[in-house]
From TrEMBL:
<feature type="domain" description="Peptidase S33 tripeptidyl aminopeptidase-like C-terminal">
    <location>
        <begin position="1"/>
        <end position="62"/>
    </location>
</feature>
<dbReference type="InterPro" id="IPR013595">
    <property type="entry name" value="Pept_S33_TAP-like_C"/>
</dbReference>
<protein>
    <recommendedName>
        <fullName>Peptidase S33 tripeptidyl aminopeptidase-like C-terminal domain-containing protein</fullName>
    </recommendedName>
</protein>
<dbReference type="Pfam" id="PF08386">
    <property type="entry name" value="Abhydrolase_4"/>
</dbReference>
Length: 76
């Protein structure tokens, strides 16, 4: 399982895509966040990571997750 943030300022998303290809049998889970660390920003991602590490259940390929809250919410 590889987690890639679409807008990671420290690790470009293409690195996640390349890592997934190089591993061969890995599944890439994409997260639509503007941060370096996506874990903790999405309950769904947390569940996928837990299922992978604890239950050895790989996530479905091609997932694009949204964070539970916006990083920069609109100012009213």
């Amino acid at each position: 399982m590889v987690v890639g943030n679409l807008y990671d300022p420290a690790t470009n998303y293409t690195f996640s895509q390349r890592m997934q290809r190089q591993l061969g049998n890995a599944v890439l889970v994409s997260v639509d966040v503007v941060e370096h660390c996506a874990v903790g920003r999405s309950k769904e991602l947390g569940q996928l990571v837990t299922d992978y590490l604890v239950n050895q259940k790989a996530p479905a390929p091609g997932q694009l997750l949204k964070p539970d809250a916006e990083a920069f919410p609109p100012v009213a």
